[in-house]
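Pasting as-is:
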Amino acid sequence: MTGAIEDIIAIGQGFRIQDLFDIIIISTLLYVLLIWFKDTASRFVFAGISLLGAIYIAARIFHLYLTSMVLQGFFAILLIALVVIFQEDIRRFFERLATWRSLRKSHSRTAGSDLPEEITVLIESVAEFASKRIGAIFVIQGVDHLERHLKGGYELDGIMSQPILESIFDEHSIGHDGAVIINDNRIVKFGCHLPLTLNTEKIGKQGLRHTAALGLTERTDALCVVVSEERGSISVAQEGKIRQVKNTGELNKIINKYYKEKAPMENPKIPFYWVRRNTIEKGVAVMLAMVLWVTFGFQRESIRRDFVVPIEYRKISQEWEIEETRYNEAMVTLMGPDQAFSLFEPSTLKISVDLSSLIDGRQEINLSPDTIKIPSNLSLIKIHPDKINITAHKMYPADIPIYIKTIGSLPKGHILQSITITPKNVSIIAPKKTLNNKVFIKTEPIDLSRLTESTTMDVKIEYPPDVYFKSGHQPAAKVDVEIVKIP
């Protein structure tokens, strides 16, 4: 009992503002997932995966290493399988996410407003069709888009009225076998073919219209009203379920309830009306987020770790030459909770040394905490070594002539008339001591014994290692050799 109290006190003392945001974000994501899978056909698969997740968390808490290892490998493979299992639900989720704000505004209605008169027209038409045993299927669009689920059909975009509906479902009409799509109380399309359900147990002996209505509601949040041509009955399909209604009064209640859920009233006195909705799901999401935080995110005892970090030198002007230094990396010691190290990528660590304020000669540079960036949940203990020595030489400009180096002699009967190089001089930068000792820049050796006539050739330039060209790259040089043949 005392140990549990000490753990609670430790959790309270180690709780940070970052942890509060962590729990809020995870609670929101879990709440969205719970609402998402609440009425989908894949919710049982999700429940099974959640059960395995709970077992994995318990295995981590009680240090069941074999179970943790097996489930960890299983979840790595499951990520690929989830895309296949929930591909329809994932696509539907992102469609809702992309259009959430616009759909929320367009479907909201103010307090005191009644449902549109067109719905009364729809209910009266359904009752008329049922009494005359005229087969029909009506789709009331909700939040989800329907375009990718529909095949065929004809554009209409007209106000809904009983004569139009009667003409559409007349047996001589070209679209009487299809469905009417209703959105914003208007007939958007008619004669559309809907996807069929694969769950034949729910359909039983009902016809193709019922199969299509159930198939669409399994994939979207639409409400489908079906009138049976054989029995004259009225059925309603919603959220992957289909049932027969007794009369138009019950149908009126179902459609009213559907519109209130999809287009909730805006009450200016209660701006946060959504707090009262889905209370159980919100509580479960918060509890699961807190359990996950205690299991994986709670910052327990701190540990130390050493990392070998490379040293990079920046802001080096072209006017300076740095002698090769043996300080290319340093040992960095960091301290923090084990959870912070598990999310940390050591390859992102580097020590950045600013060389914008160099002086000529040997100098000492401090490796302070400012030279390295680390995550906020980790602290820097030490850098070893904390000082480095480098030697810098200031570079001075100069124009140096290029010397043409030749070897060998021309063959007998040939005289070297002239030999010139272009360019004659190059602009360089070099340390002062190098310039004081005279700098020789020469061409690669030109073998005269192989030449029998005048020629122009591209040659490479040889220069000391502490000499740099002002242009930043080695210039191209050409040598013109003029040879005269003796009669």
